[in-house]
């Protein structure tokens, strides 16, 4: 099966990535090879087999939904490239 | 012999006898880093205050940490431009457990742990201490190279599809990927959450057991961590392998496995037989499609996990953007490297409507089969013995432009992550060019103790560390 350039552009859009012309070319070629390889699993008979989403048997681990204060607000804000008056700064959205 | 050449348990012995103090140890390592770092390039950041921290009361043997494990107040970059300036406001759970230990530095890796050679680091290429023109493996290449070059006494790595074991094999050191859920992932920057696990990279098996003792244990902050009785993994190291049943899966010795590697691993099997173990050939039929399954699951999870990088709360933020959507897109496009973008696109593809059933859902079903097959095997065998990697370390630059070829480097290790099992890589010799070969022991869930005493028995018999030392060979000169 071939992976088209349009599909690669669509996936990049879904993942919020801009691609250059060169990247589109390169990724389309890479994806074709990788997907052809991934197709090996199509030959596996998985009739009546359930999916495993995780390696161990943990299932629905619950905890109380309690707020825990994080003291060091400054350390949190420091990692944002732009912040103002103790808030994250973003471009205008409305 | 310099202090930095000793193992952690040897250092601890000297400390206990008061022959040396912790400052001597730190000094020796600082000196070694100054000497070797220009050639090896294992560190993303070096702690300049190590001596001071000993004076302030730290008493544990210093350690190196892979740069995707959050360390409060010290940069955690994931070797990515995206997190170049990120300083974690909190410690990962494993770092809380190691808070008594001086961190010598943060170690280089493939960007966001995606790679098998550490060439995908956004900052530098790490060189293999045995031959500087070769890769150290990856993604924990900085950790394995630093341990091998005696620049840190021991290190933490992380393993999603082989990222502890394969570089340990390439660099001639010991690396353990614990059972999924044994070590808390809280504070490990997520790549593929259902596969990731933190583990030790050390000079020998005893050190590996000591470090596992320190980091293992249930953590309420990681909902996938498991409540089990804590164990002392050093206690039974000398148990021996008599009557132990070890399976040799044929699929791990077929096409694509280098001859010298194959021969070396078969020699290991012979040695175990001489020591009293029972060796038997077996089959792991799912091996042939485990790699495809792995890349589908890992990339799908990565594409979701890396969605959090939006340029706002932390991470790289693009300069020019007119609106919020552009801010997301430009920050992500400029902040992520080529391999990370490739995997995000691949992951988005296998999760997208139209392909979800054929790839992601199908891979999850194959995952069940992989788990079931190992379960059946461990009803019959105590452990399985395989190569850790199909080849020894390859030359820098030979695979970095061919993603599929790079993915094949993980062929012997990915099944273990898919099934959540523990596995350890142990050095067992050198090839004709003097590059280390490693073998892998795979165990049933939570059989770390058995893995460690079986590895220990071989190590005592073979004495790899006494026979061989990294040569820092430089082919170019």
Could you give a quick summary of the protein structure above?
Chain A is built from three helices and two strands, in the order H-H-H-E-E. Chain A is mainly alpha-helical.
Ordered list of secondary-structure elements with their pairings:
The complex is a heterodimer of chains A (94) and B (477).
Chain A: H1 5-14, H2 21-38, H3 73-78, E1 83-84, E2 87-88
Helix pairs in contact in A: 1-2
Chain B: H1 8-16, H2 22-40, E1 43-46, H3 50-55, E2 60-66, H4 93-97, E3 101-107, H5 141-148, E4 154-158, H6 165-171, E5 174-177, E6 198-202, H7 205-215, E7 245-249, H8 259-274, E8 278-282, H9 287-305, H10 324-335, H11 338-351, H12 357-380, E9 383-387, H13 403-408, H14 414-419, E10 423-430, E11 436-443, H15 448-462, H16 464-467
Parallel strand pairs in B: 2-3, 2-4, 7-8, 7-9
Antiparallel strand pairs in B: 1-3, 4-6, 5-6, 5-10, 9-11, 10-11
Which terms summarize this structure?
heterodimer, A: 94 residues, mainly alpha, Histone, subunit A, two-stranded antiparallel ribbon, 36% helix, 4% strand, flat, B: 477 residues, alpha/beta, Amidase signature (AS) enzymes, 2 domains, eleven-stranded mixed β-sheet, 11 strands, globular
């Amino acid at each position: 099966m071939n992976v088209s350039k349009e599909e690669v552009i669509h996936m990049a859009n879904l993942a919020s990535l801009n691609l250059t012309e060169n990247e589109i070319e390169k990724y389309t070629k890479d994806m074709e090879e990788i997907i052809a390889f991934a197709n090996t699993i199509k030959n596996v008979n998985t009739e009546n087999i359930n999916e495993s989403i995780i390696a161990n048997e943990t299932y629905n681990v619950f905890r109380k939904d309690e707020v825990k204060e994080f003291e060091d607000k400054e350390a949190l804000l420091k990692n944002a490239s732009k912040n103002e008056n103790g808030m994250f700064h973003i471009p205008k959205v409305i | 012999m310099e202090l930095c050449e000793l193992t952690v348990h040897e250092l601890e012995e000297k400390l206990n006898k008061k022959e040396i103090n912790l400052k001597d140890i730190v000094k020796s390592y600082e000196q070694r880093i100054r000497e070797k770092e220009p050639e090896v390039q294992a560190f993303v950041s070096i702690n300049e205050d190590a001596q001071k921290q000993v004076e302030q009361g730290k008493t544990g043997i210093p350690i190196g940490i892979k740069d995707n494990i959050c360390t409060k107040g010290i940069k955690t970059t994931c070797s990515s431009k995206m997190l170049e300036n990120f300083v974690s406001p909190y410690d990962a759970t494993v770092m809380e457990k190691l808070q008594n230990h001086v961190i010598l530095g943060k170690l280089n890796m493939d960007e966001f742990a995606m790679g098998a050679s550490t060439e995908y680091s956004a900052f530098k290429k790490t060189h293999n201490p045995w031959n500087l023109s070769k890769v150290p493996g990856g993604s924990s290449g900085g950790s394995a190279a630093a341990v091998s070059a005696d620049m840190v006494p021991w290190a933490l790595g992380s393993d999603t599809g082989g990222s502890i074991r394969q570089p340990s094999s390439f660099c001639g050191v010991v690396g353990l990927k614990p059972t999924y859920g044994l070590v808390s992932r809280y504070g490990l920057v997520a790549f593929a959450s259902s596969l990731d696990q933190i583990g030790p990279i050390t000079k020998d098996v005893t050190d590996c057991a000591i470090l596992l003792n320190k980091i293992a244990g249930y953590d309420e902050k990681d909902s996938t961590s498991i409540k089990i009785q804590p164990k002392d993994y050093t206690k039974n190291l000398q148990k021996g392998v008599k009557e132990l049943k070890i399976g040799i899966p044929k699929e791990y010795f077929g096409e694509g496995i280098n001859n010298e590697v194959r021969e070396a691993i078969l020699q290991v099997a012979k040695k175990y037989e001489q020591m009293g173990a029972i060796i038997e050939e077996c089959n792991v039929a799912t091996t042939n499609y485990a790699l495809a399954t792995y890349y589908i699951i890992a990339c799908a999870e990565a594409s979701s996990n890396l969605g959090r990088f939006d340029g706002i709360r932390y991470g790289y933020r693009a300069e020019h953007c007119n609106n919020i959507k552009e801010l997301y897109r430009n920050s992500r496009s400029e902040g992520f490297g080529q391999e990370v973008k490739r995997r995000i696109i691949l992951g988005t593809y296998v999760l997208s409507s139209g392909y979800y059933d054929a790839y992601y859902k199908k891979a999850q079903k194959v995952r069940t089969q992989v788990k079931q097959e190992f379960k059946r095997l461990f009803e019959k065998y105590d452990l399985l013995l395989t190569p850790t990697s199909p080849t020894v370390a390859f030359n820098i630059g030979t695979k970095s432009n061919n993603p599929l070829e790079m993915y094949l480097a993980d062929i012997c290790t990915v099944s273990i992550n898919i099934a959540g099992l523990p596995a350890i890589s142990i050095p067992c010799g050198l090839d004709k060019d003097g590059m280390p070969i490693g073998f892998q022991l795979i165990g049933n869930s939570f059989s770390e103790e058995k893995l460690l005493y079986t590895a220990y028995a071989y190590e005592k018999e073979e004495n790899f560390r006494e026979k061989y030392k990294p040569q820092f060979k430089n082919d170019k000169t």
